[in-house]
């Protein structure tokens, strides 16, 4: 993390690449740095690195420069008028902060395809979270790649090709918010948007060594009709827990365009000192689950998870090891029945209407989901989901959070698997461990880094909270960040 006392107009561009959102607004407010300086440095970095990573669908250079210049002026006018920085930032907490927009999040006047060129449509309005980011003063700098239909755990499409992980370009940044995760890890911007219907925020956060938050269902407004799917939600991503908290508070809350969205109190800022964290956490219980039942988790991920849990004991946290009575096969059957009733039919209809060319992983996803739904009617998925939720409540009884891996695999190859279904009928999504908490969709889940695996790709863990207990997961996340700092560690690009 850059030192804001040294962050100024003469700073090394590499320092600007790793500056956090909070650091930037502090430096802007003190007139040590201008948003325009940061935007120019980041645009230059993106231009230099992007051919290696392929994380960007569109660079928003002209509008980013214009918004940065407007932010320059607002900071200067505030100083000249004697307006306190806190007063200015209360209204526009991200003023001048660059942000990456996931391609699926509509930006008015720009085309959305979700990786399928035949489905291209020009957006006539901003997505609710984009609208709120712009109102908060954020500066969209690029739009990021996604797999087709945002329906893969890697980021590859016929339209944009393969997106690579900055930590190891032979590996994937995950998906579907893989472009956002890779961009954050590469220093393109301190914040990014994501979305999550089966881990699409948390998986890239894990593999890219950044932070991603899946809020409880309907806390963040979306676009109808897709926001009617109770597994999904739109998300904040960043390199630090507090940056993600601030961005989440900007995008969350009831929105007139999404009748399903709900009022949401802001998540409180959490202590940063170990002494204050100890005061808050001492005597709390946290559950450790290394396998979420019977997922075959690779050793590097387990070791990093256990080390993170052990670190919390330094703050007086009681760690209790428990495994839910879950079986990966049954969890994925339930999830794919859900997808087969809700998501896959709309994908199949869109492909047929547009006569769209799609990758094999999409064909396999749709076929597998529809076949599963044909065996498991929707009312049966409700029954199964209820059991899964009750089992999590049992495991978390008396605890403020549960720690678990994000994925059973420490790294994925950059290209999507040629065959999505193995010889036992298991879809490749079963390598990931995020889906159980889309089923438990009222639980907040914060994904944070935990270490580095054998292939040089970061490992990550999920902090799962009780329904709507958002402050708890950010408290635990802040503690882990203080105990095991990850924000000073960057890929060698």
CATH architecture of the domain at 13-251: Alpha-Beta Complex
Q: Which consecutive residue ranges, at least 5 long each, have pLDDT under 50?
A: none
CATH fold-level label of the domain at 13-251: Amidase signature (AS) enzymes
This entry's quaternary arrangement is: single chain
Distance between the termini: 17 Å
Structural class call reads: alpha/beta
Shape, principal axes of CA atoms: globular
Beta-strand content: 5-15%
Give a quick precis of the structure.
The protein is of the alpha/beta class and 493 residues long. 40% of the residues lie in helices and 14% in strands.
List strands and helices in order, with pairings:
Blueprint (H helix, E strand, L loop, with lengths): L12 H6 L2 H9 L5 H19 L2 E4 L1 H20 L4 H7 L6 E5 L8 E2 L8 E2 L5 H8 L3 E6 L11 E2 L3 E2 L15 H8 L5 E6 L5 H7 L2 E4 L18 E6 L2 H11 L22 H8 L3 E4 L10 H14 L5 E4 L6 H27 L5 H16 L2 H18 L5 E5 L30 H4 L5 E8 L5 E8 L4 H14 L10
Parallel strand pairs: 2-5, 2-8, 11-12, 11-13
Antiparallel strand pairs: 1-5, 3-4, 6-7, 8-10, 9-10, 9-14, 13-15, 14-15
């Amino acid at each position: 993390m850059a030192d804001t006392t040294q962050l100024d107009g003469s700073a090394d561009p590499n320092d600007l690449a790793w500056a956090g959102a909070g650091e930037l607004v502090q430096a802007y407010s003190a007139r040590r740095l201008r948003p325009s300086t940061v935007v120019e440095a980041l645009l230059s970095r993106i231009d230099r690195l992007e051919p290696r990573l392929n994380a960007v669908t569109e660079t928003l250079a002209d509008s980013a420069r214009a918004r940065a210049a407007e932010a320059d002026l607002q900071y200067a006018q505030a100083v000249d008028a004697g307006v306190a920085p806190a007063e200015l930032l209360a209204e526009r907490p991200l003023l001048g902060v660059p942000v990456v927009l996931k391609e699926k999040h509509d930006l008015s006047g720009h085309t959305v395809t979700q990786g399928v060129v035949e489905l291209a449509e020009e957006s006539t309005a901003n997505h609710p979270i984009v609208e709120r980011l712009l109102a908060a003063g954020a500066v969209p700098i690029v739009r990021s790649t996604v797999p087709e239909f945002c329906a893969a755990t890697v980021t590859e499409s016929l339209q944009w090709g393969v997106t690579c992980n900055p930590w190891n370009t032979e590996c994937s940044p995950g998906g579907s918010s893989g472009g956002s995760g890779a961009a954050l890890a590469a220093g393109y911007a301190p914040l990014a948007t994501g979305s999550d219907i089966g881990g699409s925020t948390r998986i890239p956060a894990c593999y890219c060594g950044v932070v991603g938050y899946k809020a409880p269902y309907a806390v963040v407004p979306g676009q109808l009709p897709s926001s009617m799917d109770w597994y999904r939600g739109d998300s904040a991503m960043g390199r630090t827990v507090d940056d993600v908290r601030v961005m989440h508070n900007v995008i969350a809350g009831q929105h007139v365009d999404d009748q399903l969205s709900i009022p949401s109190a802001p998540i409180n800022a959490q202590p940063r000192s170990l002494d204050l964290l100890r005061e808050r956490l001492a005597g709390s219980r946290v559950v450790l689950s290394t396998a979420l039942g019977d997922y075959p988790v690779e050793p590097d991920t387990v070791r990093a998870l256990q080390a993170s849990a052990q670190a919390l004991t330094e703050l007086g946290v009681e760690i209790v090891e428990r495994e839910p009575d879950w079986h990966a096969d049954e969890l994925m059957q339930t999830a794919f029945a859900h997808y087969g009733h809700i998501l896959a039919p709309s994908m199949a209809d869109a492909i047929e209407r547009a006569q769209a060319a799609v990758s094999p992983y999409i064909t396999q996803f749709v076929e597998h989901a529809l076949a599963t739904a044909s065996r498991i009617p929707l009312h049966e998925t409700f029954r199964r989901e209820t059991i899964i939720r009750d089992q999590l409540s049992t495991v978390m009884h008396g605890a403020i959070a549960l720690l678990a891996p994000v994925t059973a695999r420490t790294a994925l190859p950059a290209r999507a698997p040629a065959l999505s279904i193995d010889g036992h009928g298991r879809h490749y999504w079963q390598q990931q461990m995020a889906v159980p908490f889309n089923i438990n969709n009222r639980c907040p889940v914060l994904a944070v880094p935990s270490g580095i695996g054998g292939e040089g790709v970061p490992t990550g863990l999920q902090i799962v909270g009780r329904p709507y207990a958002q402050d708890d997961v950010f408290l635990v996340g802040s503690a882990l960040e203080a105990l095991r700092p990850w924000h000073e560690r960057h890929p060698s690009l």
